[in-house]
Design brief:
Layout (H helix, E strand, L loop, with lengths): L2 E5 L3 H12 L3 E5 L11 E4 L4 E4 L5 E2 L3 H9 L6 E2 L6 E5 L4 E5 L29 H4 L7 H4 L6 H14 L8 H10 L10 E4 L3 H15 L3 E3 L4 E7 L2 E7 L3 E3 L5 E4 L3 H7 L9 E10 L12 E5 L5 E5 L2 E7 L9 H16 L8 E12 L3 H4 L12 E3 L12 H17 L1
Parallel strand pairs: 1-2, 1-14, 2-10, 7-16, 14-20
Antiparallel strand pairs: 3-4, 5-9, 6-9, 7-8, 11-12, 12-13, 15-18, 15-19, 16-17, 17-18
Helix pairs in contact: 1-7, 1-11, 2-11
């Protein structure tokens, strides 16, 4: 049977391998790191004495590809979230708290109820969201949205930064549009926030590896692909650091690596350039945290941290578009983020818990209109070679949903070429 060689076991590579195995194809999955998962995994941290995620990832109940992937690998029940769509916020500057509660209908009738809206906003303020529907390929988020009033800094800005991992004046409006249409634009049933109940590996990685091997696939970690041998533009062999793998006639190769690695393997490949950082911090308390919200996350306005997550005695915060922050020392970052968490939870700022800061300086590609135009599709000019990754052209931002969709697209391309 012809083999599909999937290079990279991040979410894109895992979802590609899962889709291929589900279709009965022979799959070999290779990962340069000692473990699978890429930027979406869990590990035991000695400083905290807890198993933590290397980053915080939020899903929405409208993320159909991600939820279907979890169902396929038998992890559909491993996410947790509120029974209803609710998004709590804390304004640290004004010491105000509120919860945005979308309504059941795809039509935004819930905006007529003042208590469901962002405080200080008027009904007509929400019309600015229509600008996203008509935004062009070169428009940024700030080109499309009205920045006057309270709605922009209290809703649009944190949503855009979280989705695009960059300042809204840089981020492509065309990428934020499908996020809204697939979630808030379909009503409460599609925008319920969800997080991994135990950990990212327990939800997205470990069950996938079990599924792949149970279907006859092979998984090799600590396997770095150094080069591809070519014959008439077709891959003939994969040169790993410890072995050479022959690419037989009829075999396919899926490159599911970051864009810089893909360009090294495929000279001349056009891909997005530049990257933006994400900073996460995990804080372990002496006991289970008294969490007053039904949702497992809270938006923070007016501080350094943007989103705060909760799991038992660990509180985690995320800062997206964090290039400048990532240049600071871990101790300085920890101090800044603890001030935000302490205020939001009513804790003593002078008594910080154990804190682990994680910097991802190249967390996502720079999601500007110019770089979005450089995203390649799953098919390449090299016969039998395909691409997967959240940086490829999925029509979505570089998110969990986008990564999984990219893997699905590459699997379909490899099976139909």
């Amino acid at each position: 049977m012809a083999q599909v060689h999937v290079i990279g076991a991040g979410l894109a590579g895992l979802s590609c391998a899962v889709a291929l195995c589900r279709a009965g194809r022979a799959v070999s999955l290779y990962e340069t790191a000692p473990q699978a998962g890429g930027r979406c995994r869990s590990y035991f941290d000695d400083t905290l004495g807890r198993r933590i995620d290397n980053g915080n990832h939020l899903l929405m109940s409208g993320n159909k590809a991600a939820l279907a992937y979890l169902e396929t690998i038998g992890a559909g029940e491993t996410l947790t979230g509120p029974a209803q769509a609710s998004f709590p916020f804390v304004d640290l500057e004004r010491d105000e708290r509120w919860v945005v509660r979308p309504g059941a209908s795809p039509l935004p009738w819930w905006l007529l109820v003042r208590s469901r809206r962002v405080p200080g906003t008027r009904l007509r303020d929400y019309r600015s969201g229509l600008g996203l529907l008509f935004a062009g390929a070169t428009d940024t988020v700030t080109d499309a949205l009205d920045r006057d009033g309270s709605l922009y800094p209290r809703f649009w800005e944190p949503l855009a930064v979280a989705a695009l991992n960059c300042d809204p004046s840089i981020g492509a409006a065309a990428l934020l549009r499908p996020v809204l249409l697939r979630t808030f634009g379909r009503g409460a049933a599609h925008c319920r926030p969800l997080v991994a109940a135990q950990g990212l590996s327990e939800s997205f990685v470990d069950p996938a590896l079990t599924y792949i091997t149970a279907k006859g696939g092979t998984v090799r970690v600590s396997a770095t692909l150094r080069a591809i041998d070519w014959q008439n533009d077709k891959p003939e062999a994969l040169q790993f650091d410890t072995e050479t793998v022959t690419v037989a006639p009829g075999d396919k190769v899926v490159i599911a690596t970051p864009p810089t690695s893909a360009q090294r393997l495929l000279p001349g490949l056009e891909a997005p350039e530049g990257a933006t950082a994400i900073v996460n911090a995990h804080m372990r308390f002496d006991k289970a945290v008294d969490w007053p919200w039904e949702a497992p996350l809270v938006g923070l306005i007016g501080g350094t941290a943007q989103w705060m997550f909760h799991r038992d005695d660990v509180v985690s915060v995320t800062v997206s578009g964090a290039d400048a922050l990532a240049e600071k020392s871990a101790d300085d970052i920890a101090a800044l983020l603890w001030c935000d968490v302490a205020q939001a939870l009513g804790q003593d700022k002078a008594n910080p818990p154990a804190i682990r800061v994680i910097k991802e300086k190249r967390a996502t590609f720079l999601q500007s209109p110019e770089q979005v135009s450089r995203r390649p599709g799953a098919r390449t000019r090299w016969p039998g070679v395909f691409l997967a990754g959240d940086w490829t052209d999925t029509g979505l931002p570089a998110t969990v949903e986008g990564a999984i969709i990219s893997g699905n697209q590459a699997a379909i391309a490899a099976m139909t070429a």
